[in-house]
Specification:
single chain; alpha+beta
């Protein structure tokens, strides 16, 4: 008899638990609607309303990829510096850059560049002997060496000199080089040197 009571109680307990529980709603009956479109700067948002459980849902839409313009040359490559290609996103102005390799120099051009580099290296130290070796005619340095005002200025400021090549061409045995040089203001020293030069030629004319 006790055994039967136990079975009945167990059955009763089992029957007392919920027989049917509503399964979690899968929200499969309704379509998502875009609330804010995504772009390459911000995520978008879409929502939907479930007609079964009457719940609103919200989720993010990933950012879109950039839409870039065509590559354009923003800085040309030279024999002395790399160039730059650039492009931008037509929606957010995000920019991208690529490097253009330097142009190749001929053996003759490399030789000329080496001489010019040697000259400026010597000029920064005011090594007149090495400077003269860079010229076919050493007298080309006359204004920088013989005139006291220019010579004293060069000795003092040459070490602060900065330079960069702009162009270089070699035709047969003639080379043309354009160099941009940053230098302290030498107008006073040049003026003095020119005055000395004028008197030099004047005295040479009178007594020569």
């Amino acid at each position: 008899m006790k055994k039967k009571i136990f079975v009945l109680v167990a059955t009763t307990l089992a029957l007392s638990s919920p027989l049917s529980v509503l399964a979690e709603c899968q929200h499969n009956n309704d379509q998502w609607e875009v609330l804010y479109k995504a772009d390459c700067e911000d995520e978008g948002v879409e929502t939907r309303y479930c007609s079964v459980c009457h719940e609103y849902q919200r989720r993010s839409i990933p950012k879109t990829a950039h839409v870039f313009s065509n590559w354009k040359v923003s800085e040309k490559a030279t024999k002395f510096s790399e160039g730059t290609l650039s492009r931008y996103c037509i929606y957010c102005d995000e920019e991208e850059y690529k490097t253009i390799p330097k142009k190749k120099m001929t053996k003759a051009e490399k030789k000329v560049k080496k001489v010019v580099d040697s000259f400026y290296s010597a000029a920064k130290k005011y090594d007149v002997k090495k400077m003269r070796k860079c010229f076919v005619r050493g007298s080309d340095l006359k204004v920088f060496v013989e005139y006291k005002q220019m010579a004293s200025f060069c000795k003092k400021y040459n070490k602060r000199m900065r330079y960069e090549f702009r162009s270089l061409s070699v035709k047969r045995n003639r080379a043309t080089v354009k160099v941009y040089c940053r230098y302290p203001d030498a107008s006073f020293a040049v003026e003095k040197a020119l005055i000395e030069n004028k008197y030099y030629f004047l005295l040479q004319y009178i007594y020569g």
